[in-house]
């Protein structure tokens, strides 16, 4: 029987969920500035001995190197790997370019990390053709315009699309037709399903349920006895190819933050405050870029023995500035009192987020406008010249600070900003530093 155009559209719309995952994204961005390293094992990580692997090339992964692995272990496994320092501002810039391409295809894009997203293209097939054709066009465009590669999985729902993209890596495309979904899932290990971590997998395997097909065929009462009622029902549905979750275009981010693990444990208050200053600016920049503001500040502190403390403070006024974030973060640190040990990790978070377009009642002294104007001016400089060209004077090396202390090039609005919390009295342009350029646009 000949398929009519109406039937074809219905078939395409029945299997129109994509998961697009950039291949070794951080490494890929770094290699744009170092093309001579292509084909060699490359690890992106900080240089400290406590750093962890952010990303590894497929050549390094062949030695067992994985993201999240301690750098010391990764270097032992692959001693010939080239270590590259991360350039986070470049990753964010390329991520924005990639996501903008997705939004040009469909208005149903759910970004789940800096380098991956779900797309529901059911509404775009009449205009752009089949999901496979859309995926091919997207992958080609990412390659041609940005020099990066992406893997795409297509299926009837998010679970199938996510697994398909993983199975198609690197630089691949895999469509799982609706009628093939259960068979496709059946041969996979149970760990392929969302929600199956180490302990759950151990319990399932102990009950003789090693593959997804085992879960699909198992009586529901058996599953609930092994992993509980809610988890058992959830896994049974996924194993049979059923996942009702829609692609949600707007994902509410509950908090934005940054943290840093020290190369050596730190007891010096001055060092802790300096790192808080740097993390506060990184976090506040993300807030403003995402059009958000926060009402609560959170502090995280981890001691040398891995004891971890968290504290938070709700503010009477929402904020977007690093000045407010630092002021209250430093206050939380002081409230902890005497520290019994040196500090291994410190982090700061902006929480209780809301859209910055919502109405805002300003305080009587107008400090939100003062600090907001100063830091927004710095954002504009960063967007044009890079994040390393302007910043708090306290974070600059001493010699450049002395040489440039009277520079007239510093934005006058930023120069007026003053902080009693951290001794910062002005911003100053940093000396030019080598690094990866963010893409234009």
UniProtKB/TrEMBL annotation:
Residues 400-414 have a biased composition (Basic and acidic residues). Residues 17-197 form the UmuC domain. It holds the Pfam family IMS. Residues 393-441 are annotated as: Disordered. Binds 2 magnesium ions per subunit. HAMAP family: DNApol_IV. This is DNA polymerase IV. The gene is dinB.
């Amino acid at each position: 029987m000949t398929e009519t155009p109406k039937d074809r559209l219905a078939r395409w719309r029945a299997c129109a969920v994509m998961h697009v995952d950039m291949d070794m994204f951080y490494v890929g961005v770094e290699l744009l500035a170092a093309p001579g390293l292509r084909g060699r094992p490359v690890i992106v990580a900080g240089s400290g001995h406590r750093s962890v692997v952010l990303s590894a090339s497929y050549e390094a992964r062949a030695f067992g190197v994985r993201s999240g692995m301690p750098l010391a272990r990764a270097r032992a496994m692959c001693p010939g790997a080239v270590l590259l320092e991360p350039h986070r501002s470049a990753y964010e810039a390329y991520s924005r370019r990639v996501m903008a391409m997705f939004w040009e295809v469909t208005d149903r894009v759910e970004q789940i990390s800096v380098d991956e997203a779900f797309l529901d293209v059911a509404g775009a097939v009449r205009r752009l053709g089949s999901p496979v054709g859309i995926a091919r066009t997207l992958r080609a465009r990412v390659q041609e315009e940005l020099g990066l590669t992406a893997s795409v999985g297509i299926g009837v729902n998010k679970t199938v699309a996510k697994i398909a993209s993983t199975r198609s890596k690197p630089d691949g495309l895999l469509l799982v037709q609706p009628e093939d979904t259960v068979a496709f899932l059946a041969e996979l290990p149970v760990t392929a399903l969302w929600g199956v971590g180490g302990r759950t997998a151990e319990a399932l395997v102990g009950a003789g349920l090693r593959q997804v097909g085992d879960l699909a065929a198992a009586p529901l009462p058996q599953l609930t006895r092994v992993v509980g009622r809610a988890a058992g029902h959830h896994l049974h549905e996924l194993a049979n190819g059923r996942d009702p979750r829609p692609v949600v275009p707007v994902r509410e981010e509950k908090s934005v933050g940054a943290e840093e693990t020290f190369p050596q444990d730190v007891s010096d208050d001055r060092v802790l405050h300096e790192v808080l200053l740097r993390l506060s600016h990184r976090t506040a920049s993300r807030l403003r870029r995402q059009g958000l503001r926060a009402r609560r500040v959170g502090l995280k502190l981890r001691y040398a023995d891995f004891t971890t403390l968290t504290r938070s403070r709700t503010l009477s006024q929402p904020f977007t500035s690093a000045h407010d974030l630092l002021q209250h973060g430093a206050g939380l640190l002081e409230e902890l009192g005497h520290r019994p040990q040196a500090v291994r990790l410190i982090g700061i978070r902006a929480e209780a987020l809301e859209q910055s377009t919502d109405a805002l009642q300003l305080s009587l002294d107008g400090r939100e406008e003062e600090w907001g104007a100063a830091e927004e001016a710095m954002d504009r400089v960063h967007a044009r010249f890079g994040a390393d060209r302007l910043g708090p004077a306290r974070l600059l090396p001493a010699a450049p600070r002395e040489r440039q202390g009277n520079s007239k090039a510093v934005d006058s609005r930023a120069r007026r900003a003053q902080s009693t919390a951290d001794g910062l009295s002005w911003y100053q342009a940093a000396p030019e530093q080598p690094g990866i350029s963010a893409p234009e646009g």
